[in-house]
Design goal:
By secondary structure, chain A is an all-beta fold. Chain A is built from no helices and 12 strands. In chain A, strands 2, 5, 6, 10, 11 and 12 form a 6-stranded mixed beta sheet that branches. In chain A, strands 3-9-8-7 form a 4-stranded antiparallel beta sheet, with no helix packed on it. Classes of the chains: A mainly beta, B mainly beta.
Chain lengths: ~110, ~110
């Protein structure tokens, strides 16, 4: 069964510092990969997605992610974090032929200190 | 465009009561989904509807039923609420053609006492 692992439950970074949130998926086929962000009390907003092609994808709000098949990873990065980036981040995976069902990781809560 | 809307935003139920969570989308999407979100567990799929007229179980369907009323609307029903169903419920929709992105509603926070 497809699964997604986000090993970091909680991360704290200083404003202006770089950020990397880890995501690993498990399955043999080529996945479709997503990163979503959830601000407190809000729904989920898509940051970026990877379907095929260039393994480095750019998203909204200055985020990027790199798909590494050899490591089964899709880590999210941002060069300089802003206080408004404090939120919960979810990695998700989808496979073709599954009615576009998403499997989510358990999330990483990002705290930004000033 | 409202996107995906959900009603109600908040609800408190007593054990054994029933209720229906409503979801509607105005993006002409084919597929719709219901998730629940619990602390430390991410989002888990309850039921989904790949297209109008079809529904299927997801990862955690027990205690729930769904109805795809038409292409726009997908409701989730709790027939006899239990405290274990206290959660935040999200509805999502996806076109499933050209783009597999799912668009989420704002959520319904349900407490069962």
């Amino acid at each position: 069964a497809q699964s997604v692992t986000q090993p970091d439950i909680h991360i704290t970074v200083s404003e202006g510092a770089s950020l990397e949130l880890r995501c690993n998926y498990s399955y043999g086929a080529t996945p479709y990969l997503f990163w979503y962000v959830q601000s407190p009390g809000q729904g989920l907003q898509l940051l970026l997605k990877y379907f095929s092609g260039d393994t480095l994808v750019q998203g909204i709000k200055g985020f990027e992610a790199e798909f590494k098949r050899s490591q089964s990873s899709f880590n999210l990065r941002k060069p300089s974090v802003h206080w408004s980036d404090a939120a919960e981040y979810f990695c998700a995976v989808m496979y073709t032929g599954t009615a576009s069902k998403l499997t989510f990781g358990t999330g990483t809560r990002l705290q930004v200190t000033l | 465009n409202a996107g995906v809307t959900q009603t109600p935003k908040f609800q408190v139920l007593k054990t054994g009561q029933s209720m229906t969570l409503q979801c509607a989308q105005d993006m002409n999407h084919n597929s719709m989904y219901w998730y629940r979100q619990d602390p430390g567990m991410g989002l888990r799929l309850i039921y989904y509807s790949a297209s109008e007229g079809t529904t299927d179980k997801g990862e955690v369907p027990n205690g729930y039923n769904v109805s795809r009323l038409n292409k726009r609307e997908f409701s989730l029903r709790l027939e006899s609420a239990a405290p274990s169903q206290t959660s935040v419920y999200f509805c999502a929709s996806s076109p499933r053609t050209e783009s597999y992105e799912q668009y989420f509603g704002p959520g319904t926070r349900l407490t069962v006492t």
